[in-house]
Amino acid sequence: MTGEGYQAVVDGLFVRRRLVYSRGSIKNQLTVLKSIHGFWRYLQSHTGLGRRPDGSIDADSEHWATHTEKKPYLKKLLYAPPANEDLLDELWRGYTVDGSTAFVPGDDYGDNAGQDAGIEDEEEGFQ
Questions:
Q1: Confidence (pTM)
Q2: Which one of 9, 10, 53, 91 has the lowest number of neighbouring Cβ atoms within 10 Å?
Q3: Which structural domain, as residue segments, surrounds residue 85?
Q4: Pair 69, 62: CB distance under 8 Å
């Protein structure tokens, strides 16, 4: 995210919550949320784990200790899925937009470069 993006988030949080956050604290929180989302997706696709009726993961304590050793905030997934799972999916479902490219359906992207140059001459002679 650019500096302007972080500033927009800081301003938005100030308007909504009347709290001032630094760029670093916002960046850290986004990193935590992305890590929670990635770990939850990993748990969903891991075939050796069971599921409880409430949707939480049923795994032995060794599995949790191994995977949450340096990230204690992931331990809350032991008891329930993330409360904001839908929003996390919207943020990090695998699509990346950085503005460096664009796609327009039906555009040939220069495959016919130079082929249209002679069309103007043909149209003038056709009149």
A1: 0.63
A2: 53
A3: 3-96
A4: no
